[in-house]
Amino acid sequence: MEKSDLIRTEAYVNGAWQKAASGKTFDVTNPATGEVLAAVPDMNRKDVRKAIDAADAAWPAYRALTAKERSNILRNWFNLIIEHKAELARIMTIESGKVMTESLGEVNYGASFIEWFAEEAKRAYGDVIPPHTKDRRLVVIKQSVGVAAAITPWNFPLAMITRKVGPALAAGSPVVVKPPSETPLTALALCVLAEKAGFPPGVYNTVTSTESSEVGKEFCENTKVRKLSFTGSTPVGKILMSQSASTLKKLSLELGGNAPFIVFDDADIDEAVSGALAAKYRHNGQTCVCVNRILVQDKVYDTFVEKFTKAVQGLKTGNVLEKDVQIGSLINEKGLNKVKEHIRDAVEKGARVTTGGESIEGLFFQPTVLAEASGAMLIAREEVFGPVAPIFRFSTEEEAVQMANDTEFGLASYFYSRDVNRCWRVAEALEYGMVGINEGIISTEVAPFGGIKESGFGREGSKYGMDYFMEIKYMCFGGVNK
């Protein structure tokens, strides 16, 4: 691995680079090549507790900074992230298997949250309420919630951190980040830049560990942690919610998805193919908002399958560091085996492979299309998290909505139609926190990101994002007219 000032092999706690107290480490590998990239500290609950204590000790002074002072530090951090974009993207690519073009895009996307919340820090407005009696004045203010813990996933090693810590830091809350064991190097690189940006010691902390369940318990049960934000699977989210009950922790949970992509017979088919390609194969299908089910109306089904298959066949798989490569590796053997199992199950139950369907080498897998998919298949119920696109048939608008909503998840959804009345009807009927209408890429820092049902609760980004890291305080001033 090439040397870089951003590559660190120690955790960052209380303004210092630290090893695990036990001395234990774990290896970080490149999923595309199998190369061991680095060894980082394998911290336990005691190490994490020290980071929480440091954040709690830093809280009074940090929340006392003016909103503009916090804004200036965040703006410094944003500038540094953009300045080091190429370096950050390379680190992200070699530890996650994400292709270089997408990694560069993620740095811009991730940085946008820091830029956005640098501005929102100055807009945490309260209210003056008309009083109910003449001698009182009623005021509402917003204050920092306190120490915020963030548990982030491997598929967006940078953006899932900035989307959580941006609003927390803007609100005056110190943070403790636990990145995934697959991609800690990007998280630690952010620490280098956060330190340069000027965050006081203890305000920004990152702990690395393979003991995810133990770290999660510490976050949930430690009374000094006032807020926990988690992105990951629904089963783990439920565990964290249960463990947080003892402290009534304030939670934001962004959990699993089963995103439908509906193509009506009045859609622009070429646009729908382009949108589905982007929404399905981004990061090799390994994102929570990736399309998991493509639903196509009978009249245009065969045309869509033919055009979509041809488009998928044009995707380039190869060296993830090359800028024209569009499909990288899967993250690990478990992910590869899940892809294979879903395809095997679908074919046994009547699906037809129109392209792909085979491993290439290592953790690479051909981008795959399955025609004649049905609700009896595993892939109809489970998030495949890989480069497999099953295509289902439907006849009527009502059937499409029913099929789309027939899941416990409710994160992202998409549909294509040129009928404006249908667009309103279907968008309102879909039981999802986010709906893309004639668009396959919907994430942006200016709009709220989050789901409903078993995809969790809470919103990240947008003007709503800071509210989840703040408490509302009502103040009643009496005796004003005396």
From TrEMBL:
Keyword Flavoprotein in record: no
CDD domains per UniProt: ALDH_F5_SSADH_GabD (cd07103)
Protein name: NAD-dependent succinate-semialdehyde dehydrogenase
Active site per the UniProt annotation: E254
Listed GO MF terms: succinate-semialdehyde dehydrogenase (NAD+) activity
Residue ranges annotated for the Aldehyde dehydrogenase domain, each copy included: 17-474
Position of the signal peptide: none
Family classification: Belongs to the aldehyde dehydrogenase family.
Keywords, ordered alphabetically: Oxidoreductase
GO terms under cellular component: cytosol
Domain of life, source organism: Bacteria
GO BP terms, alphabetized: gamma-aminobutyric acid catabolic process
Keyword flag Oxidoreductase: yes
Alphabetical list of Pfam families matching this protein: Aldedh
